Amino acid sequence: MSLKVVSGDTFKIACTSNGQPEPTYSWSYNDKINKSQVLTVSSILNDLVATCVASNVMNETVGELREGMAQASVTINVLYPPMSPTISLQADMSNVVNVSNEITVIERQSFTLECQTISKPVSSYSWYGPFTSTSSLLPLRDITREQSGTYSCYSFNEMQRTFGTKEKGENSTSIAVHVLYAPEIGNLQPAKAIERSLLNITCPVVKGYPNAYTVFWTRKSDGQFWDGQNLLIPEISRNDTGMYTCTVNNTMMPTAGEVVYGRNNRSIELEVYYEASVSDFYVKKHYGINPVVIEENATVELRCNLASNPKPNVTIFHMSNILKRQEGTLSMSHMLKTLRCEQSGVYKCTGINAYNDLTPAEKYLTLYVRCFPRPSPHVILQTKFFLDEHDRVTISFTVIAYPIPAANDYKWRKYVGSVWIPLENNGNIIIDTSGLQTNLTIVDVGQTDFGTYRLEIQNPVGIYEQRFSVGPKVKPEPPSNFEHLENSASEESLTVQWKPGLDGGYPQTFILRYRKASEKIWNEISIEHESENTINYTLTGLASGTEYDIEIYSFNKLGQSAPTVTLRIKTQDIQRDAMTSNPSYIGIAAGSAAGLIVIIAGVVVIIVVRRRRSGNSQQSQELVRYENEDALKQKRPMSDGKNEDYEEIGPPVVQREPYERLKTNRETLHAYQDIDESEVSHGDKRPKEIHVEIGKVGKAGQIVRYVTKEAEHEEKKILAPPPRPKGKTTSNDCALTDYENLP
Fold it and tell me: Under CATH, to which class is 86-180 assigned?
C-alpha cells in the first residue's frame, strides 16, 4: 500500500497481524529496525518504504518448535511544495543563461524567460510584471525601455494527504529586467551669435541606460573637435558660421550577448551676425586700381561688394551726393554714363546693418576724368567786382581738370589799351596758385586797376580762359528767374521766387510790388538781401479767386535796377460747399467789403506783410524806402492833389505809380546789359566805365565773343573772334577764342 503525506508531517503507522500465539512486530526502514507495532515518523522529508514484520513462535505440544512470520510494506510518498523557482534567459536556442536577481537586455531585443522549480506534485506557474504569463515561459518580443521592471515567477501545487487535509504549496522568484538603450539628445535649436561674443551651447543630453555617457562636438566644415557637453568658442567670428554636430555615446553590456555601444547625434546650424564691411569698391575692368583715370565722355560701372550678416543697406556717394541706395544686398553697381569733368572726385560706398553701431562701413574710390580745365561747379564763381578806390580785392578761381595744371600753367593777364598784358607779383599785385586754385589779389585798388582781367589755364588735354571785370560800384542788376510757385498757392496767399542779381558793390534791398489786376495802385514790400542765392516770399491776406500783378526790382545806395517782368497770378477759389455750409463766410465777406472801403478812402496806404523766406532769414516788416535819401525829399502829388514832403508824412511808405516806364525806357540802361549800337549816346560826358559780358558759352561749346562797353560818349566796338588757334582745344573739341589781339 502507499501513503501520501506532506513533507514535515509527523505520523504513526500501526501494524496488525493475526497469529497464535500473538505475534511480535518490528518495522524496518532505511536500514533501521524499530521493534514496535507502531512506527512513529517525525517530520518526514523524503519518501519512505517501511516494512512491518509480524512473527511468533509456535511450540506444538507434540512436535517441534516452529517460527511463524508475516510481513507487509507501506510506501510513504512525501508531498512537498515548490522550491524557490529558478529563472533562465533564452536569447536563442544555443544561448541559455541561468540568472539570479537581474538581467540586462538591449532595447528591441526578443528573448524568453523560463521559470523552473521542484515540487510534488508538479507545480503550476504564473508570471507577474509588465508582462504576464500562465506558463513557465514568458516570451518578450521587441522589449522597450518602458517594459523594464521586476518580473515575478509564481509556482504552486496542491498536496492531498491520504488521511487528512489538503494543503496548498507555493513559492516565487523575482528578477529585475533592465532594458539597455543609447542616450539621446533633446531639442537643439539653431544658434545665433554676434561676432566677437562668447559662444556657449550646451548639448541637451537625455541619459540612456546605463546612465554613464560621453559627449563631444564636431564642426562639419573642418572637422574641428570639442570634447565635452558644451560647445565653447571664447570669441566667435564670422568664419565659425556653419553646421555643428553633438554626439553622445554609452556602453551597453547585455546579460546574454556581446557589448554594444549606443550612439546618437543631432546637428544645428550656427549663424553669426556681424557688422557690414565693404570688401571691394572699384571700377569694372579696373579691379584693384585706385585712383582710376577715365577719359571724359566714357561710361563706367562702379561695383561695390560687401560682407555682412544680415544683409546691409548700401549707398554709393559722389562727394556728399547720393547716387544710388539699395536695401538688403551684398553687392551693388552703378553706371556713370558720359562722364563729365565735374564727376571727378572721391566716390564712397557705404554699408550698414543693425550691428554697425550707427556708423556705416565705407570704402573710397578716387576717379579722375581726363578733361581740359574749367570752373569747379562746387565753388561759386564771382566774375564781377564792384569796388571803391583803395579797397583790397581777391579774384579767385577754382578749377577742375585732370591732369592737374602745374603752377606755371595758370597765366593772369589784364586788358590794357588794345593788348593783354601778363601780370606778375609786384607791390600791388599778388598771384597765389596752389593745386586747383589760383588767386589774384589787388592790394590797393586804384583807377588804373579797373578793367578786364583774363585767366588762362591749360593742361595736356586743352585750354580754358575765364574773364573777370573790376570796376567802381554801380546800381544793382535786376533779379532773375522771377516765378510763381504754383504748388504753394492757396485761397488767400501766393508764393513767388527769384534769384538776386549782382548788388553792384553795396547791400541791396528788394521791392516786391503787387496789386489786383483790376486796380492801378501798387502795394510795395521791402525785403533785405541777406546773401541768399534764392529767395521765396509768400504774400498773405489776398482775396480768393482774384488775379494779381506782381513784379520786383532792387536798389542800393547808388540807384535802382529795372523791374522784372510782371507776373499775373490768380489765387485759388473758395470751395463752394465750404461757403454754403459755413455761415461765417458771410460775415467775413461783409467785413472785407467794409475794410476795402476804408482802405480806398485813405490818403496813404501802408502795407505790412510778414516776410516769408527760405532758410532762417529774419522776418521783416520794413516799409518801402526810395532809392536814396534825396528821393525822400521829392514832392509827389497826393490823393487830394496837394504836394507833400515824404519827410513830413511820417513813415517813408507810399503807394508807387506803376513802373511801366522803367521796363521800357532804355535811358536807365544797366551797366552790364547788352548794348544796342543805336542807343549809344556820343555826347554824354559821364565818367568812363568799362563793362564786359563774361563767361557765356555758345553752341557746340564755343565761347562767344566778348563785348566791351566804354563810356557812352565812346562808340561801342563789337569784336569778332580771330581764327581758331592751334593746340587750344578741349576734350569736346571746343573752339576757344584767342583774345590776345582784342583792341
Answer: mainly beta
Nine-digit cell string for 259: 557589448
Measured distance CA(129)–CA(152) in Å, rounded: 6
Q: Give the architecture (CATH level 2) of 480-665.
A: Sandwich (2.60)
Query: Which sign, positive or negative, has the C-alpha torsion 458, 460, 461, 462?
Result: positive
- Report pLDDT digits (tens) over 672-703: 333 333 333 333 333 333 333 333 333 333 33
Ordered DSSP codes for 512-540: EEEEETT--PPEEEEEE--S-SSEEEEE-
Ranges under pLDDT 50 in the chain: 578-743
* CA proximity to 75, closest of 48, 52, 43: 48
CATH topology assigned to domain 373-472 = Immunoglobulin-like (2.60.40)
Find all residues with CB under 8 Å of 486, minimum gap 6, and list them: none
Q: Output the CA torsion sign for 353, 358, 364, 367.
A: positive
Fold of 2-79: Immunoglobulin-like (2.60.40)
Residue owning grid cell 528788394: 510
Structure-block grid coordinates of residue 202? 550646451
> What is the rounded distance in angstroms from the CA atom of residue 709 to the CA atom of residue 680?
10
Buried/exposed code over 396-431 (b: 16+ C-beta within 10 A; e: otherwise): ebbbbbbeebeeebbbbbbbeeeebeebeeeeeeeb
Interatomic CA distance for residues 138 and 556, integer angstroms? 121
Task: Look up the pTM and report it.
Answer: 0.55
The boundaries of every CATH 2.60.40.10 domain in the chain are 2-79, 86-180, 280-371, 373-472, 480-665
Beta strand pairing call for 361-375 and 292-295: parallel
- Report helix, strand or coil for 280: strand
| Rounded Cα gap, residues 503 and 476, in angstroms | 4
Q: What pLDDT was estimated at residue 378? A: 86
* CA nearest neighbour of 311 among 346, 262, 252, 271: 271
pLDDT at site 66: 87
Residues 493 and 537 sit within 8 Å (Cβ to Cβ) = no
Candidates 2, 4, 1; CA nearest to 163 is 4
Fold of domain 280-371:
Immunoglobulin-like (2.60.40)
